[in-house]
Automatic annotation (TrEMBL):
PROSITE patterns: RT_POL. It comes from Podarcis muralis. Residues 143-404 form the Reverse transcriptase domain. It comes from the Eukaryota. This is Reverse transcriptase domain-containing protein.
């Protein structure tokens, strides 16, 4: 019996290890495997669900967009924009450069080897046969770019319905989102266009500088760092703020092609390039795959195609005017694709919001209406930030006829904010989720090797501790300790240590920085990226090199200027605002580390310094 049990355990260990290794670089698939191995309820099997057919889903997804569009006909603002002059006075992109065989190789290797049911052969086979297919592929791509025509055969998407949350009713079609799969060759052509279009947009600074969605060096964390820095500095000055999170319905699906065409021309897209983008967007359709069957084809009359490489870039261009409009009223605005955050900084603690906010919200609602985008005022959230005993006593203005009401907390780009930016609710949510996944990992631990267990824990636990942890600067000790307890438990599980064992040797053996130093490491890496053009300009503009009044030896030591006491008054804010904490921590690095200008070298040297600080100079 014992031999049998050992054989079963060995078989499980081999199977689990192979499953985890196959998905180690694909987080979504790894999560799915972990759910299946721990017998957690996953997505319902729609293949065996006779209630919904693929035709029912296809009709629902198509009609949802058509109904929204029907409710948003072109108005006077739409017509005025379409009739306005479309001549760009700046640089233009009117043709594509031809791509070489080496470019084809790079384009093929850059993408994930996903295969669409409409593909004539698996994508991995194309990548595995360079001598046979790369030259014809290059000809196809260059023909498309040169003629300004995107092949019609590649415009159809195969959609799979995915339940938004496992807790939702699977019988309600509105609880599903369409997950689109596009032909592999179409994505390769898209990638060739995206490289040239993206380079042009970067060189001409055509995109809004505060748009962080799907841009190199930008992300939700950089956007939130800039937002919280502004808010914390405002609170430090004795002021207050209002944060407004706009909610839009199916924004990517609602993009009007005529308006997008106009806005593309505004940023300098002309000639063959504009013709190609028109061809790429027109004549598209989708079919739903379910239970081994495909629905009939449903045409898409608007929107940028879901799952397409170019869609985020095109959507960012479409949304450019909104941020400019908001800032014209003196409000701040950060965007991550269709997530738009408006914030108003106010001196003192006024009883009611100023008229500027009312006018701005009216203009925003009007612009969205003219752009044929559906605003959900009832789902738009508002957070007042300031002293708890001095909140707004008057009413906030309305948005599209709906009265705005402040809440005690909001979730912005996945992070929970409260009125004092304490991050307490966020830390509580993170630790709860992390311990849940630790319990899952503990179930698998007997059947996993240490490296495989570490892979699982990194994907499900420690990655949560690191996500947006640059916002945790200056947390009270009790909150930092909550995060540290999660890391300690994860380290002990990997190493098989008991609670009686001191945690420092365990962390040291894993070469893990403690939570406090992981936060500092993230801030320093963001600082490096901002200083050397690898991050957003809105972070770079918060930092400045120290220039002494006299020629001192420190002039050439890459020191950053630290805001003085006149600029930052409160010790608590002084320790938490990025624009203050970043230069303080940067200046404590060794001169050799500060002098580095390669990101990989800097990360290595920075971690080594912090590791020495955490565990002593003898630490390797």
């Amino acid at each position: 019996m014992k031999t049998y049990e050992m054989a079963v355990k060995a078989a499980k260990k081999s199977y689990f290890s192979a499953s985890i290794a196959s998905a180690s670089s694909r987080p979504a698939q790894l999560f799915s495997i972990i759910r299946s191995l721990t017998s957690l309820e996953g997505q319902p099997n729609l293949n065996n669900n006779s209630t919904h057919s693929c035709e029912a889903f296809a009709s629902f997804f198509a009609e949802k967009v058509l109904l929204l569009r029907h409710d948003l006909p072109a108005n006077l603002d739409t017509i005025k924009e379409l009739e306005a002059s479309r001549l760009s006075s700046g640089p233009v992109l009117d043709h594509f450069d031809r791509i070489s065989p080496a470019d084809v190789d790079r384009l093929l290797q850059a993408g994930k080897p996903t295969t669409c049911p409409l593909d004539p052969c698996p994508s991995w086979l194309i990548r595995a046969c360079p001598d046979e297919v790369w030259a014809p592929l290059g000809d196809i791509i260059n023909l498309s770019l040169g003629t300004g025509i995107f092949p019609g055969e590649l415009k159809a998407a195969v959609v799979r319905p995915l339940l938004k949350k496992t807790s939702l009713d699977p019988l309600d079609l509105s609880n599903y989102r369409p997950v689109s799969n596009l032909p592999f060759l179409g994505k390769v052509i898209e990638r060739a266009v995206a490289e040239q279009l993206g380079r042009f947009l970067d060189e001409t600074s055509a995109l809004d500088p505060f748009q962080s969605g799907f841009r190199a060096g930008h992300g939700t964390e950089t956007a939130l760092v800039a937002l919280t820095d502004d808010l914390r500095r405002q609170l430090d000055r004795g002021g207050s703020g209002l944060l407004i999170l706009l909610d839009l319905s199916a924004a990517f699906d609602m993009v009007d092609h005529e308006l997008l065409d106009h806005r593309l021309a505004d940023v300098g897209i002309q000639g063959t390039v504009l013709q190609w983008l028109r061809s790429f967007l027109s004549g598209r359709g989708q079919r739903v795959a379910l239970g081994g069957e495909l629905s009939s084809r449903h045409s898409l009359v608007c929107g940028v195609p879901q799952g397409a490489i170019l869609s985020p870039m095109l959507f960012n261009i479409f949304m450019c005017p909104l941020a400019q409009l908001v800032r014209s009223f003196g409000l701040g605005c950060h965007q991550y694709a269709d997530d738009t955050q408006l914030y108003l900084l106010m001196d003192g603690h006024p009883d009611s919001a100023p008229d500027t906010l009312t006018r701005c919200l009216e203009a925003v609602a009007g612009w969205l209406r003219g752009s044929r985008l559906k605003l959900n005022p009832s789902k738009t959230e508002v957070l007042w930030l300031g002293r708890s005993d001095m909140g707004l006593r008057g009413q906030l203005p309305s948005l599209a006829g709906v009265q705005l009401v402040p809440t005690s907390s909001v979730k912005s780009l996945g992070v929970i904010f409260d009125t004092s930016l304490s991050m307490e609710a966020q830390i509580t949510a993170i630790t709860k989720a992390a311990f849940f996944h630790l319990r899952q990992a503990k179930q698998l631990a007997p059947y996993l090797s240490r490296p495989d267990l570490a892979t699982v824990i990194h994907a499900t636990v420690t990655s949560r501790l690191d996500d947006c942890n640059s916002l945790y600067v200056g947390l009270p000790l009790r909150l930092t300790q909550k995060l540290q307890r999660v890391q300690n438990a994860a380290a002990r599980l990997i190493m098989g240590s008991s609670l009686r064992d001191h945690i420092h040797p365990v962390l040291y053996q894993l070469h893990w920085l403690p939570v406090e130093y992981r936060i500092r490491f993230k801030v320093l890496v963001l600082t490096f990226k901002a200083l050397y053009g690898l991050g957003p300009s809105y972070l770079r503009n918060r930092l400045s090199w120290y220039v002494p009044q006299r020629n001192l030896r420190s002039a050439n030591k890459n020191i950053l200027k630290i805001p003085g006491h006149k600029e930052v008054r409160l010790a608590s804010t002084r320790a938490r605002a990025f624009s203050v904490a970043a230069p303080i921590w940067w200046n404590t690095l060794s001169q050799e580390t500060r002098a580095l200008q390669d990101l990989t070298s800097f990360r290595r040297a920075c971690k080594t310094e912090l590791f020495h600080q955490a565990f002593g100079q003898g630490a390797a």
